[in-house]
Amino acid sequence: MSVVVTGATGHLGRLVVSSLLARGLPAHSITATGRDTAKATDLVERGVTVTPADFDDPAALRAAFAGADTVLLVSGNEVGGRVAQHRNAVEAAKEVGVGHLVYTSLLRADVSTLPLAPEHKATEEIITASGLPHTLLRNGFYNEVYLDRIDHAREHGAVVGSAGEGRVAGAARADLAEAAAVVLLDPSAHVGAVYELVGDRSWTYADLAAAIGEVLGRTVPYQDLGPREHREVLLRAGLDEGTADFLVGLDAGIREGELHGEPGILSGLIGRPTTPLATTLRSRA
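The structure assignment produced for this chain is given below.
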């Protein structure tokens, strides 16, 4: 079996490669791609084939995917340009005869109102229309997204947001990477599957603040603001308007339950409980 992992120089892709190796796939069966292969010297040292491939370069994608049984398309990070980039990857996979395509999407991408959802929904539609055997991994939010809240709480004494009592069913990147590896290693068992992947326990921002307080050794409250006030706080903190609007929109989605999901699928795939939020937070302390 030969597996290609795109975005392998990023956080998630690198963890997928490590999980494939840990689960017994020989290093010579893995091709890791990325824009800057200099960031993947550790993978080369482990025997993994590393090749440059940019989502904006169809020829490089075809070369990287040629002969692959399975390709993991880790969603790109260029928000606003990802649909065209992902289309290039899907078309390249089809042209060279990839046997199975796995895509890292977003929780309930087909119905979500989150700012990130439209590009994921469009990509899913491209993959379905391609006719390629595929699996959609609709990942919930990464626990690691909230690590920077520790530094903010350390400096300002509180977690600030506008999510109300909305719940986040977050999961550690390593858990989601392991789920991807499970699918990549046995693709025939997951053809056509759409997995909504969330952690075993969801939490509110008040819970997040309490967990950060445990890390810092002091009480950290959650300060829930209205969307307008939240935006003003973010702008005063130096964020640009686009980023501030995105974060306020994200909290609005959390408030409406967009990042809450039913547990069990992720832990079932990886064969163990998912990593608690507090464990992820302690890794930053």
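Interim note for the steering committee: Residues 141-171+199-261+272-285 form a domain with the UDP-galactose 4-epimerase; domain 1 fold (CATH 3.90.25.10). The chain has two domains: 3-139, 141-171+199-261+272-285.
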